[in-house]
Each structure stands twice: as structure tokens, then as C-alpha cells.
Amino acid sequence: MINFRDLGGYPARDGYTMAWRRLFRSGEFRNMTGNDLDRLTGEIGLTSVIDLRSNLEVERQGIGLLSETDIRYHNISFIAGGNREEDERLFRELTNMGEFYLHLVRKSEFGERIVAALEIIAEPENHPLVFHCAIGKDRTGILAAILLSILGVEDEVIIEDYTLSTPYMEELLGRINSDPEMAKHIKPLPDYFWKAVPESMSLFLSTLRREYGSIGDYLKAQGTEPSLVQRLEKALLT
């Protein structure tokens, strides 16, 4: 497992705190070891997984040893994928990942999938739960930021949590660049793609609020149930 961490312990609204051992974020699980699996099923007692990768990614890369367990598996694709030329053009036009995140969440189908993921997270019977994408920085970062924000976690804490992915990106890039064939495929991507800098998450949160009024209002615009935030509070705050 890569970039795996507990979202517990963060101060939330009204003196509450994000509960430990209920919600985790991570990178993909396809290379997980037997020891990793023992930790998930034994030490953590994981009940559910939300996989934010595209259907194509799941088909090509699989879910590793998770397929051998009774852990509930949900694939909610945050990016359909497949149009490499369009993605490369978009990255050339943008200046940081925050702009890319905004490009995604402005799409109605993306907003609907955020709500779908939050609905699963709001059910206590699904805990402990982990949500993940490939590296655990971008799609996972968007969902984590929106969730933490609507639970009253301060922006500086959300931004700090986002930047915790930085060492994993450096490690990944080094591993890819050591393979000439893999390095060739990532060459068109800009340098900022491999970074989890505070400015990206700060821009994402501030712009989303400016455009919608609040993160909660953004979710309302995506058709969320009025009770969703309250159910998330009850499930995740202590």
C-alpha cells in the first residue's frame, strides 16, 4: 500500500474531532503484501473500500489481494479516462493541480460521483472505510478536502493533510524515471502534476467557495440530500 493514512484526529466544528480508525485515505492496493492485508483485516478491521479509479484502470491493474477478502468494494470512477491528447492539452493550459481539480468538480457527472461516495461514507455500517485512487493525491485529495471541509475542519489542516502526499510523489517519479519505457509515457506531463503543494489545495478550496458560496452549497448544487452533512457528522465526529 502507498500513501495510506488515517483521517482521524483533525479538529472539526463545535469542538468535535474526526474519529480515529473510521476513515482512511490511500493510494491503490494492487501491490499490497500479505502483511498489508493482515493489517487491514486484523488490526484495522476494514469493512469497505471506495476505489476512485476509472473502470479502465481497475480492469488493467486490478485490486490486488482485496479480491480475496469479504471487504465491501465500491468502484466510483472519478475520471472516465481515455482521451490522452485532451488531458495533455489541458495540462499545458493550466498552471497547478488546483486548477485541474476545479476543472473536474465543475462537471455535473463528477459532482454526482462525489455525492455517491459521501453517501457510502455516511453509513456507519461501512466503517472502517478507506477511499483511494492510484497515488492517493488528486482524486483522493478532492474527496478528502470536500469531506473535511463540510465537517468543519479548517483549511490549513486540509491543506497540510494534502501535502502529506509529497514524499510518495517524489518516490513514484523516481521509480518511473528509472524505467525508460515508462518515462517516455509521462514526458508530456508538466512538473506540477507530480507535486502536492499547498497553493493547489488553497486555490481549489477558495475558488469553490467563491463560485458556490460554500462547500456545502457546492454539494447542494450536485443534488445532495439535505441530511447528508448531518449523517456524516454523526458517523465521523466524536
Radius of gyration: 17 Å
Span between termini: 28 Å
Strand order of the largest sheet: 1-2-5-3-4
Number of E-state strands = 5
**Secondary-structure element order, N to C:** EEHEHEHHHEHHHHHHH
Q: Which architecture per CATH?
A: Alpha-Beta Complex
Summing up helix and strand content along with how strands pair, one would put the structural category as alpha/beta
User: Ranges with pLDDT <50 over ≥5 residues?
Assistant: none
What's the main sheet like? 5 strands, mixed
**Approximately what portion of the residues adopt beta-strand conformation?**
5-15%
Domain count: the total is 1
CATH fold title = Protein-Tyrosine Phosphatase, Chain A
Q: What's the overall geometry?
A: globular
> DSSP helix count?
12
CATH homolog superfamily = Protein tyrosine phosphatase superfamily
The residue fraction in helices comes out at 40-55%
Can you put this structure into words, describing what you see?
- The chain has 238 residues and is α/β, with parallel strands linked by helices.
- It has a single domain, classed as Protein-Tyrosine Phosphatase, Chain A.
- Helices cover 51% and strands 8% of the residues.
- The chain contains 12 helices and 5 strands.
- The chain has helices spanning 34-44, 55-61, 84-93, 97-105, 108-121, 139-150, 155-163, 166-177, 180-186, 198-212, 215-221, 228-236; strands at 5-6, 23-26, 48-51, 72-75, 129-132.
- A 5-stranded mixed β-sheet has the order 1-2-5-3-4, with helices on one face.
- The longest helix has 15 residues, at 198-212.
- It is globular.
- The model has no long low-confidence stretch (mean pLDDT 93).
